[in-house]
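Help needed: design a sequence for this.
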């Protein structure tokens, strides 16, 4: 499972950034347009709000779990959530958790 989690963390970083980079290549570095399109419809608000709630739940869970296992600082996962996304941070956390369970 450990290798699968690491692979999913890599995929979780690459796939979302593919779309972000594609947007900026097509539209230039237009943050206003990006934000406008991100929040332009109710379905997109659904996905954004779902993702933000999931990130909050993950960070609460993480703050409790990180104390149990020898892991990188919680701030690493917070940074990854903010800069890359939950699709990378969650499988990376599970990778480190599995790695530490393996050594015990």
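Sure. Designed sequence:
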């Amino acid at each position: 499972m450990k290798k699968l989690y690491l692979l999913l963390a890599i995929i979780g970083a690459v796939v979302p950034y593919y779309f972000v980079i594609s947007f900026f290549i097509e539209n230039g570095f237009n943050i206003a347009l990006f934000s406008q399109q991100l929040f332009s419809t109710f379905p997109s608000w659904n996905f954004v709000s779902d993702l933000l709630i999931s990130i909050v739940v993950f960070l609460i869970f993480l703050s409790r779990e990180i104390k149990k296992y020898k892991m990188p600082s919680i701030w690493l996962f917070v940074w990854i959530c903010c800069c890359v996304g939950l699709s990378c941070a969650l499988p990376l956390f599970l990778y480190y958790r599995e790695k530490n369970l393996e050594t015990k």
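The first helix runs from residue 2 to 27.
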